[in-house]
């Protein structure tokens, strides 16, 4: 029986029955590989890999068919324009490919290659298609928000074979554009750091008409076809998993090799489950056999250490070697594959030093669109991330509640259930800020409705949460149930705001509600309409403390090819879905963001929206999580490399489902996961509908107590976390930072991905992610002093150190030379901590100094943009602790400072306090000092109680007083 042919009601019944039956079993196998393509099953990937193989086999005799026509070149205002000629036959016939190389004021460079015939619309489409003829050229309008100003200082020199452009800060960068074959070497100083088309793998599949072969007449045998030249088998249509993709424009893939000479490590290109330092995909030790794939998909129970696609795609890569970082951003929203090869090149020890270097060679392949590549020459990781952020936007500064703890499962079954969990979290004194609702809260899975039987009083539920300044997040997905009388679908179809199929009619597919349509958020009219659904008067049962979760926005289509939408579907402007697939999640996320901004006239609060699918630029809109993980130790261990790579790629507000979405974690695993989750930028416990309930208070002792302490650790450090989020929002620096970010010279740390620094606090965390472990090997990258966060045990000396880590212990070090803020009074939620006093922790370095920052605002509105914030630097030197303002005064600064005038520093802790303080009980200003001498292997420390200083003011505290009599 083919379910797709059943009437809607019967199909839904069968689907529900099937879901119920499946839920009775715990899957023994994770992702179904057969549902997703390999490179060999993806026509354009296979063709371009074969092209690379041919080039490799021919070696030096291979000649790239692409060269610049020198007479076409022109230089104006920091931009080099011309035409690349692609030779396509022995007679010398060529295809014209317009080229633009832009040198930006930021120091970045951009290379764009188009195809003239498609650009001008001088092609014919098959199947009477109404799709656009051009290569997709609108990714920039979604991903790029700034940083495109052209350099006014770049200078070009040209001869018969090449063009040389000097650009960047003080003209330190250089681009050498070679005409025949076309290639670009990007240099910093005298060294080449990035090479485009070094191996000659540039390939733009130009338009050509399909030559129809005559069908054999009746009685004639079909002639045997002998493959000659290129493999045309997937040029015009392609089948996979029972679905056929019509290709009205024919073959149109683009590919380019990008080499990082001398670079051993590359990072980024999320989302994949694997190590921080990306593996090779063609040869090498422990390599993958397929390229890394970027094609957003609903991957059920994804597997570990795999290059296969997941839910998000950010085609941004960093390459790093000692004291140098560079990067590339491949601005293409179509399905993309990336091969990585690391080749060792031996050098003459007499001329270039003993040993060898590694060249990392990458091959980028996309199904359609332009070649549009940004090149960043660093030289530091922070320089690269900042330059990328100037283009795509920095991470959203979220509401403060969003960085606290979120309690979720699929599903809290009634509004009374929600209120009961809320009451019990309070009863057990377990802090949390947000409780979540999955799809079961809706009436028959119709979004913007509530089930009248199970959620009859959503406003009452929200009011109870608000009493503790807690929030609710409700899921709203892009699939809209096809049901007569449902006002949302009726409006959407009436206004023609759904994604269309290849015939130009609304596309119908299957997802959680059964038969559904998908809102097309590429359409400005769809965004305007979407905004009308969210006002409190329209979304009945919603209130100011309700926020949104956008799931399934890859988009997930249960009966679609690779569980997503057909590539020949059509979006606004008649762009094919193949052109925009990886942008789809961002467009829906953006529509919801715009909607939350306009919920109520006169109310302008920062939205909070979690997304599963994402692209470059999604960081401007909210948070992401790593999707449907499993309750096992491997998935716990995998989360940090995934989150770190997301941060490197400009989207640091990331997390993983604490406890694992699928399965029932044993209590040790659940406990360790909460300890790890306390260091996720986005911190949420979540579970599948078929799992046992696992709210922290259900774990029982000692587990509940240990989990609660981990949660309280997160809450006490919220001022430091919020300061790190602010830093990310202004310069793109990741919130949790891998070693190479902080120590770009330390080669031993370049591949470390199980420990990390938190913002600029000097806190170095190495949560336990291994079953049965009661210690960890934590790596110290320098000769500074480090101290155990909890008992002040000192550690020093570069290299690995063993830290004891029984179940109730989180391995967390404080690096000397830092000051970080805390709030130590336990509360039910972060909102209730707003006016609590601060504790400053001073961790003295070897030189007796320390420094740190605090950023704080109202944690809710956009008034910080008008100066309503406090930003201070704390410095300790020569026995003086000083607080200085580093903010910029704005229209609302005085008003905000007045609201915070009674917020004080109630305690100062000095770790590594000097022995000369022995016997001292007060400071020069009369502040009470409590000194604890070093003993039992613990460092000396001291506490200043009630120093009498306010958080929003300048002040100094003098520690340089004589000893009191003992």
TrEMBL record:
The keyword Transferase appears for this protein: no
Signal peptide: 1-30
GO biological process, one term: N-glycan processing
Compartments it resides in: Endoplasmic reticulum
Cited InterPro entries: Gal_mutarotase_sf_dom, GH, Glyco_hydro_31_AS, Glyco_hydro_31_C, Glyco_hydro_31_N_dom, Glyco_hydro_31_TIM, Glyco_hydro_b
Top-level taxonomic group: Eukaryota
SUPFAM superfamilies (alphabetical): (Trans)glycosidases (SSF51445), Galactose mutarotase-like (SSF74650), Glycosyl hydrolase domain (SSF51011)
Start and end residues of each stretch annotated as Disordered: 212-231
Pathway annotation from the record: Glycan metabolism; N-glycan metabolism
EC number: 3.2.1.20
UniProt keyword annotation of Hydrolase present: yes
Domain Glycosyl hydrolase family 31 C-terminal, first and last residues per copy: 732-819
Every Glycoside hydrolase family 31 N-terminal domain range: 98-339
Domain Glycoside hydrolase family 31 TIM barrel: 396-724
Keywords: Endoplasmic reticulum, Glycoprotein, Glycosidase, Hydrolase, Signal
Reactions the enzyme catalyzes: Hydrolysis of terminal, non-reducing (1->4)-linked alpha-D-glucose residues with release of alpha-D-glucose
Enzyme class, spelled out: hydrolase
Molecular-function annotations in GO: alpha-1,4-glucosidase activity; carbohydrate binding
GO cellular component, one term: glucosidase II complex
Family: Belongs to the glycosyl hydrolase 31 family.
Protein name (record): alpha-glucosidase
Organism: Amorphotheca resinae ATCC 22711
